[in-house]
Design goal:
Number of helices: 8
Strand order of the largest sheet: 3-2-1-4-5
Distance between the termini: 46 Å
Helix content: 25-40%
Low-confidence stretches: none
Mean pLDDT: 94
Amino acid sequence: MAVMSPAPVADPSRPLAVLVSGGVDSAVLAGEALGSRPAVQPIYIRTGLAWEGVEFDHLQRFLDAIAAPALRPLVVLDEPVADLYGAHWSLTGRGVPDADSPDEAVFLPGRNVLLLVKSLLWCHLNGISDIALAPLSANPFPDATPAFFTDFAAVVNRAVGGAVRVLWPYLHLTKMDVLRRGRHLPLRHTFSCIRPKRGRHCGACNKCAERRRAFDESGIDDPTDYAA
């Protein structure tokens, strides 16, 4: 039987970096952290995915809406994947998984490897010892497990003599749980779509369907502007 890696114990006296994408989960994580950490450093990894332009605009609006003394300016790190992913749907916008597709259809190979490797190094070079991201309990992918986060952080730290910890505080939560925790935040500025239409949620892709269900099942009014 596999032994689950224990979650690192958060130290509220330390600044926290948060990997943000503009989606509900990471947005709520950043918003909650402002109430418990002396400084919150949002980090966005730009890889060239088809929806990033719209996603980034929403993220900036969300961060503007939650502005506080503890919120540091957004850091953007570039890590293009066109040479790696080739003609993948996430780059071309063709064949995007629709509302009837299983969650496995939206798998982006090595997504958390790509998100963490550069952000961990940035934190090491800039004196931040904790970085958090927001995978949920339903995440089925192999790079979203406690063992992966612990082992990957250890490898990167070993390479640079560092001690940055990866935190995954929502790994026991559902998206409904996260929505309820963040219902006081400006969730209308979050973005979940993988096939945006004219700067809006398409309303028909896998991620839009997941978003609709979560708002409906949580009992929270959905403020999303869907194109369909």
